[in-house]
Fold this sequence. Notes:
429 residues, mainly beta, flat, disordered N terminus
Amino acid sequence: MLKQVLLIGLIAFSVSIDNCKETKKVCKKCGNEFIRVEQKLNNIGCIDKDEYDTAQNESCIGCYNMDLYTSKCNGCERNYAIDDGVCYPIEKCSSPAENKTECASCDMPWCLKDGKCVEEHLCRKMENGKCVECASFYYPNEEGKCIRYPEHCQTMDSEHKKCTECKVYHYLDDDNKCQKITIDYCQKLEQGQCSSCDYRYYVDNDGKTCTRYPGECVKFNNGICQQCKPYYHVTDEGKKCTKNPIDRCTTYSAEEGTCSACENYYTLSDDKKSCVRIEIEHCIYFADGKCISCEDYWHKFPNNDTCTALPEHCRRWYDQDPQYCVLCDDKMYWNTNDKKCITIPVDNCIDYDTTNGCKKCDDNYQLKNGKCNLICETYEEICNVCNDGFDTYDYGKTCTVVDSSVIPVNKSSFIGLNLAIIGFILFML
């Protein structure tokens, strides 16, 4: 019943929060028909007022997503813990204990101690005054203190005596220590050879190097390019993409020296060694001696070799009985009574028909009672994913260090690094 109609929104391309890897845009001010609700960590959304009030009247306090058919909650607001579809008010708690008054597990960075959640950045669970469960990449020693994993270690053995797996770009040496891989772009090393490279790189030279795929390659496997982008074909045993020698040819066979597909408005010659302009006006695809399809606002009717103009503002046509326009210009619809495309009478509606009215609204609008209501008026940027060694505990506004060995990155230096990376990528392309 209580539906969250707008969750966290758009992934931002720039990072403007210190020690943040990826940001998102979330709603700062909801529309008149919605209520802004903050949930766990960085979940923020706008909820329909009527549905929210209904849930409150049904005594589902703390619930933001109720199942209409079971009358149980699927999610609780912050400081409420869910158990069997019911929300219990327990501060900083993510799931309640059986007695419903104590906590079984806490939100990060809170630590479970005697059924309550206490602030402790490294410890996740305490028993008898000692920590028995620590944050990621930390383990509890005999004294109940959280000790950091060895440098660059991803996983340790059950007794926490040695590292069993290293993080990406590192390998485990004979002394169970993690060393940096010296092969550029290599992510994983096995028996002295690279077994996995970065995206768009493949293992080459018997595992000694990582080689970049050609920029025109769109499908590759096991060091071989299997498909190039249009206007290019695979050469040099899958190591290169070469431009097609036939002008306007999108798909080319190097073995036969022929073209199998041309770009729009062109068709194959009889010997398939050239692409020639289609003589029929407005025809974009021609085969077997006839026009197959026309450009928008024109249509190829059965038993007609030419492209015929469609009614004004109609882009595509259905020519079986009953005939009608299947796609009008933006913000318009096919009126079955007037037999023409006219402006949609509902603001911000993008899908409308004469019988049912508005069926779909623009992004950031919700359909209700035949109208499109604005969900969010203004947005703000929050952090969705923090850098390694950091986490967010204030709905994504800041990233807090959880790994004392990590050196924080300030905003200006991080943006500078981004610009350097973008420059490098453009140079490589």
